[in-house]
Design brief:
Helices cover 27% and strands 25% of the residues. The protein has 352 residues and is of the alpha/beta class. The protein is globular and about 65 Å long.
């Protein structure tokens, strides 16, 4: 057992998890965040007698025993929706696919569809240096040009050549739907095709969790209680004004008080750390999208069994629609619409 002073910056799920396991090692841990609420993208807001999630909606088992025990040991069918299969949908080229979250390339012209299928079958390289090559190597140039380049630009706001290949695993963009169900099942017996083809109907997989009450923020409350149980000192609404270094090692953080530390765990963008450290070599600051989150409540159930709908159609600003009636299995006839927009579009003017 160690006994170090550990400071964790950022109270999103990464920071919460890091703080817990550092404390379990016997360290004295302080968790710091400028927000008044912990959770990051897992926060929930309460309005119109309903909880609406800020970002992430479902947590899935990781397969790592200790981590899953921390995240899910207090969750069961009484306080959570626990499923090994969820319904998802997507909207692309003015067509709704109500059974799957992945882009269906059958909406392309017949010529592009056939050419795209040939290139997809011939592509067997899953390695890539950037997002553009991630898509081309997996799916071929035709599908990249007609689908993944415009869709990824809609979601990320940048040309794919400027982004990391890791971004390809966001927003369900690492797979697509092609061929028919029986052909897909045969092809996905191969590791290469299994990595890039989605099944036409959702298959059972690892367990997925969503609280019946309180939204995802309810799960954060449970995890924060676990941090208190292992003695983590939680400092929310705390701004970091500077970082003190000695011989290239961080020894303290300057807030309203000075927090001395033997080890710093930083879960925020690295550019913030570079700025606060006063280094001559600056990291590039993160680029933020113009985004909006709109919450709606209806008198009747929405006409969909999907827990979420990926809106890939590039003519629409919405990126994802979450349907709470299918998440919590209740009569919560509400949804959240996440909207992405470029400069020049005033999201506040979209709804009177």
């Amino acid at each position: 057992m160690s006994n170090k002073k550990v400071t964790v910056v950022g109270s999103g799920i990464a920071g919460i998890t890091a703080a817990y396991f550092e404390a379990k090692k016997g360290n004295s841990v302080t968790l710091v965040d400028s927000d008044e609420r912990a959770g990051g993208l897992l926060k929930s807001d309460f309005a119109n007698n309903r909880y609406f999630d800020y970002g992430t909606h479902i947590l899935t088992e990781t397969g790592i025993t200790q981590l899953d025990d921390f995240l899910f040991s207090n969750l069961n069918n009484n306080n959570c929706m626990v499923k090994d299969q969820i319904n998802a949908a997507n909207y692309f080229n003015k067509k709704m696919n109500s059974k799957n979250c992945y882009v269906d390339i059958s909406s392309l012209s017949e010529q592009d569809y056939l050419k795209g299928c040939d290139e997809l079958l011939a592509s067997n390289n899953l390695d890539a240096e950037n997002l553009e090559l991630f898509f081309i190597n997996r799916f071929g140039k035709t599908i990249y040009k007609n689908i993944f380049k415009p869709v990824s630009e809609k979601y990320m706001g940048l040309d794919p050549s400027l982004l990391s290949a890791k971004v390809g695993h966001f927003f369900d963009l690492s797979r697509l739907l092609a061929f028919d169900d029986s052909t897909t099942k045969r092809l996905t017996e191969s590791k290469i095709y299994n990595a890039k083809l989605g099944h036409h109907t959702r298959l059972k997989g690892i367990k997925k969790f969503y609280p019946r009450e309180g939204g995802m923020g309810g799960l954060i409350d449970l995890l924060m209680n676990k941090l208190k149980d292992v003695g983590v000192d939680i400092k929310l609404s705390t701004n970091i004004k500077g970082i003190v270094q000695e011989n290239g090692r961080v020894v303290s953080l300057v807030t309203e008080e000075e927090i001395s530390t033997d080890k710093l765990v930083w879960t925020l963008p690295s550019s913030y750390l570079s700025f606060l450290s006063g280094l001559d070599r600056k990291a590039s600051p993160p680029k933020f999208r113009n985004t909006g989150i709109y919450d709606f409540t209806f008198e009747k159930a929405l006409n969909s069994e999907a827990t979420f709908i990926n809106v890939y159609d590039v003519e629409m600003l919405s990126g994802r629609v979450t349907l709470y009636q299918n998440l919590s299995q209740s009569n919560n006839y509400s949804c959240t619409v996440e909207v992405l927009a470029d400069d020049g579009i005033e999201l506040g003017d979209m709804i009177d």
